[in-house]
Specification:
single chain, 305 residues, alpha/beta, five-stranded mixed β-sheet, 11 helices, globular
């Protein structure tokens, strides 16, 4: 396909048409008249050799190809928007820009809050938007990174993308303060027999893979998509959960739990900021990465790390 012969304005029209499923509303959304949007739809239909929008009764529905293009067009639009927003120079004290970061609630609690404080002091016109890490992050990392400014995630889950290291942490276990069968020490038998609370898709994490290598298969009783909820779901029960030491320290005052060391040498945890190569030479993004690295270096060492 010869991209030089394509009108990139059609990407804007295609996104509006697929999302609105109405020529008039799509035109109003992008500032085109109905005849102009109808002409754009005709060009798109010829290009894809597909109706894209099919009339069903008194309304339009997406064809099978239109449904496929819906997500792809949104991603392409975001990539183009970020591409043409790239800057050769960046003055954080004067710029007005939003950076979108994908992160777990753990990363936002431990690191994101500190990053937001630093950005507020150095760049009052800069906005940070954190969104929850999707479960599909491992399956389609490139698509995710192409639509955002970065991903906060430890090493060992994804690879083959540029990253800058932020800080170190370690895995610990939390149990109820009044746990009936575990005192100050855990055994591997405890890990195999006690009911667990786990974070979403924990089998992607190196720490959980290590448990499997040790012959421990967690008996999961509760699964949740928030690291911060793990201690609360452990308190007052026989359950056990594996959390990051930094987060356990933050939540200790509000959860009736105690921290217990692993009965083995746990793999370390090194959090990093990952990004798509399209951002590598953007001046604003370079500032974001340097600021993030500086904030990470200022974090206090993890307990016992």
């Amino acid at each position: 396909m010869n991209l030089a012969r394509l009108d990139l304005n059609l990407v804007v029209a295609l996104r509006a048409l697929l999302e609105e499923r109405n020529v008039t509303r799509a035109g109003q959304r992008v500032g085109l008249s109905q005849p102009a949007m109808s002409a754009a739809l005709s060009r798109l239909r010829r290009h894809f050799d597909d109706d894209l929008l099919a009339r069903v009764g008194g309304h339009y529905e997406l064809t099978a190809l239109g449904q496929v293009l819906l997500d792809r067009t949104s991603t392409a639009y975001d990539v183009l928007e970020r591409l043409f927003a790239s800057q050769a120079e960046f003055d954080p004290a004067r710029e007005s820009r939003e950076f979108r970061l994908v992160a777990s609630d753990y990363a936002v609690s431990v690191f994101g809050a500190e990053l937001a404080r630093a950005v507020h002091e150095e760049a009052p016109g800069i906005r940070l938007r954190f969104t929850q890490t999707p479960t599909s992050v491992v399956d389609d990392t490139a698509t995710l990174l192409s639509a955002v400014d970065g991903l906060l995630m430890p090493h060992g889950v994804i690879s083959d993308f540029p990253a800058t290291d932020l800080y170190d942490d370690r895995w610990v276990f939390v149990l109820a303060d009044d746990h009936p069968s575990v005192t100050d020490r855990l055994t591997r038998q405890d890990l195999a027999e006690l009911p667990w609370v786990t974070y979403q898709r924990t089998y992607d994490a190196p720490a959980v893979r290590q448990l499997g290598m040790l012959g421990v298969e967690p008996r999961v009783e509760v699964s949740v998509d928030s690291f911060q909820l793990l201690p609360l779901l452990v308190a007052g029960t026989r359950r056990i959960a594996m959390v990051q030491a930094r987060l356990a320290r933050l939540l200790a005052p509000i959860a009736a739990v105690r921290v217990v060391e692993p009965p083995y040498e746990a793999v370390p945890l090194r959090e990093a900021l990952w990004w798509h190569p399209v951002h590598t030479h953007d001046a604003g993004h370079i500032w974001l990465r340097e600021t993030a690295a500086r904030v990470g270096a200022r974090l206090a060492p993890s307990d016992g790390g």
